[in-house]
Specification:
The protein is an alpha+beta fold. The protein has helices at residues 3-18, 21-35, 37-40, 44-67, 75-85, 95-112, 122-153, 166-173, 180-188, 213-230, 252-270, 288-305, 314-324, 327-334, 338-347, 351-360, 365-372, 376-390, 397-410; strands spanning 197-203, 235-239, 242-248, 275-278, 312-313.
Length: 412
């Protein structure tokens, strides 16, 4: 068996695998989603546009090196991969997740080799060994360069080494809360994991110093204290400039206590420049990845809207999204308060504030009067004035829903 014979065998192996290039890449991405928390929680658009593109590029580089019988990846290949992955720190993908993805990629690619060779042909066996060398060398070099790029891009990367219960946190966020290892590790820190969970995320704007490790640790302790006193033991950890809180629950009453605790903690975290997002209640451990994505989106919405005195629930985000997807609905609802604003400006009245207090106090006249420091009759008069100006009666269930939506959309 000559060197040229093996080289030819490697080139032929590359040609056979190239026919399945895209399918192999898609299968690798599916594995990322199964095994890595950041990819399990990622949107389908991100997986398709970002992750698949990188995987296609990486596998294409490997095939090119096999065809050329070159073990070391080229400078151009490394630079291309570096450019594609430079944004990952700003897309919420952890460094460990990126490294794990490349490890999954290399292991999966290597595991496919036997299906593309005749194991009774010594030339093809030698070609497969050579291909394995190329695959693992490429992965090793890319991980080194990409890791350094990531560290250069991400400030205060030392926080990664200070993450609380990182392995356990990642396991639960990936939907494996009921796995024996996760249950065991959780019990070691005094937490009983189950199928039902509420996920919270606290984070700060990306352009400030609030994401520094010390601030994140302080926020994590604050959340833990609030939930320990109101709900019970919860799993709190830090992931890439976000504090994540996983709250085991057993029913609707527990969920309500979690939300109340989140609202109470929001005021303290505001002093740290952070906002809280709360996902919807999940009753299956496998649904936690989507809950994590919801909590992140709710926290982002809280930052955009400047909501600091309470937690932002994903239900609120979802309602806003539904309303804003319809131009007609948004226009009708957002203009509903215009007559009240005009009246308040002209008469120095408080119709909008009264309506907001009425909604905030669950439509109680006496509670609204106390909140506004006025007589009950004054509240009744203002509610009637609102009806006359808008054509919608705040004491009608149907109309108050409409007016409450208008308050939400206009941020009144």
């Amino acid at each position: 068996m000559t060197a040229s014979t093996v080289t030819q065998g490697v080139a032929e192996l590359a040609a056979r695998m190239r026919t399945d290039h895209e399918q192999i890449a898609r299968s690798a991405v599916a594995l990322y989603k199964t095994e890595i928390v950041d990819y399990a929680a990622a949107t389908s658009e991100f997986l398709e546009d970002e992750v698949l593109a990188v995987t296609l590029r990486g596998f294409g580089d490997v095939l090119d090196n096999l065809a050329a019988d070159v073990v070391e990846p080229s400078v151009e290949q490394i630079a291309g991969m570096e450019a594609m992955l430079m944004r990952r720190p700003h897309q919420g993908v952890a460094l460990a997740s990126m490294q794990q993805a490349f490890q999954v990629f290399s292991g999966y690619s290597y595991g496919l080799l036997p299906s593309y060779i005749d194991d009774e042909d010594p030339v093809q066996l030698r070609a497969a060994l050579r291909a394995g060398e190329v695959i693992f060398r490429y992965t090793h070099e890319v991980i080194q360069v990409v890791t350094q790029t990531y560290l250069d891009e991400l400030q205060d990367v030392r926080g990664d080494r200070e993450i609380v219960s990182r392995n356990l946190l990642d396991a639960v966020l990936a939907g494996r809360a009921t796995s024996p290892s996760a249950i065991r590790d959780a019990r070691l820190v005094g937490i009983d994991l189950g199928e039902q969970t509420v996920v919270l995320v606290a984070r700060a704007p990306t352009d400030g110093d609030e994401g520094r490790p010390r601030t994140l640790r302080t926020a994590a302790k604050t959340l833990r204290q609030h939930f320990l006193s109101r709900v019970g033991p919860v799993l709190v950890g830090v992931r890439e400039k976000k504090v994540v809180c996983l709250c085991p629950v057993k029913g609707a009453d527990d969920v309500r206590r979690v939300v109340d605790a989140a609202h109470a903690a929001a005021a303290e975290l505001d002093a740290l420049g952070m906002c809280i997002g709360v996902a919807g209640w999940r009753q299956r451990a496998g649904d936690v990845p989507s809950a994590y994505a919801e909590a992140c989106e709710a926290a982002d919405q809280a930052i955009r809207l400047g909501v600091h005195d309470r937690a932002m629930l994903f239900d609120d985000v979802l309602l806003d999204r539904v309303l804003r997807t319809s131009d007609v609905a948004e226009r009708i609802v957002t203009t509903a308060l215009d007559p009240l604003r005009a009246y308040d400006a002209e008469r120095k009245a408080d119709l909008v504030a009264t309506l907001q207090a009425y909604v905030d106090t669950n439509f109680g006249v006496a509670a609204t009067a106390r909140a506004m420091t006025v007589h009950n009759n004054t509240v009744l008069y203002r509610l009637e004035r609102i009806r006359l100006l808008t054509g919608r009666d705040p004491r009608s269930p149907r109309d108050i829903v409409f007016l409450a939506l208008a308050l939400r959309l206009q941020g009144a």
